[in-house]
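Archive entry. Fields below.
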Amino acid sequence: MADAGEAPELDELVEQLRATGARVTSARRLVLRELLASGDEHPTAEELAQRIQRTDPEVHVSTVYRTLESVEQAGLVVRAGLGDGPTTYHLAHDRHHHARCDGCGAVIHLDDRAFATVVRRLERDHGFLAAPRHLTVQGRCRGCRATSG
Amino acid sequence: MADAGEAPELDELVEQLRATGARVTSARRLVLRELLASGDEHPTAEELAQRIQRTDPEVHVSTVYRTLESVEQAGLVVRAGLGDGPTTYHLAHDRHHHARCDGCGAVIHLDDRAFATVVRRLERDHGFLAAPRHLTVQGRCRGCRATSG
DNA sequence: CTTGATGCAAATGGTTTGCATGTTT
DNA sequence: AAACATGCAAACCATTTGCATCAAG
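PREDICTED_STRUCTURE:
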C-alpha cells in the first residue's frame, strides 16, 4: 500500500508518469515541479497555472487541468477538493487526512491507520477495496469544547 | 449526540426551521416535504426543484438553493459532496457516510459506527470531539476490482 | 511520421446574485 | 408596515471541449 514516505525527486515522478504511457512535456514537468515546491500547501489548478506562468507564460490553465488529470490517473496526485471552493491537489506520497474544528478551524493531521476499521469493514461486508485519499472529519477541538457551547 | 433516529414529521422540521428565525413559506415547506419523501436517495437541488414543480410549477431552482442554504444552517439538512457531479442533500437525522467506487460510481452506505475508531482516537490523542457529518471513502467495488486493473 | 499534448476560445453546468415584486410575521 | 423570500434573468466560476497546430516517442 502506497504510504506517506519521503518526498520523491522530480525525476522519479517524471519517470512514473512516463511509465503509464503518458508523454512527458515541459508543461507537465513544470506542473510536477510546482506540486513538489508546494509542500503541504494544497494549490488549486488556477494557482498552479499562475505560478508556472512565472517560468513559462505560455502554459495555459487548461493544460494544467489536463495534466492534473493525467498525473492523477497515474496515481501521482490526489484531489483534495472538499468543502467549498475549487478543487485542490497534492502529491500522492503525502497521504493524510484531516480533522477540522468547526469552531476555530484548527486542523489535526490523521494518518491512514485511523481508518483501518472502516477499510476492514468495507472489505468484509461488501468486498469493497477502500483507498481513502482525503477525508475531513468535522468536530470540535479541545479548546472550543471548553470555550463555547 | 444527535443520531440517526426515526424520520421526523414535516411539522417538526417546519417548527425547527421557524425556531431559527427563518420564515416558513410554501416553497420551503415543499422542499422539506420532498426531502422527507426522498428517503435515502440523495437528490440534487435540480432534482428537488423538478419534483417540487410537479406540485407547484412556480417554484424556481434558485429558491430551492436558497432554501437549502437556510435549512442547512438550521442544521436540518446535510450537504453530501460525492466527489464529482452536483452536490446532493439529505435530512440531518439520517446520518451516514458513503463509500464510492472510483470505477463505476456505485455508492455504499456506511453508518456512523464504522468511524468509531477514528472518533475514539481523536478524543484520546487530541481531546477532539469528532462529529463526522458526511465522509466519502473512495475505493473500488467488488465488481470493478474483478473487471479492471 | 504517428500519436498524443497544447493553446486558445468558446461552451458547459452548477450555483449565486441583483432587482423588482410578493408574502410572512 | 417592515423584513424577508421569491421569480427571473443574468452573472459567475471552475472545469471541459473542439480544433488547428506542435512536439514527443
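CURATOR_NOTE: The longest helix of chain A spans residues 61-73.
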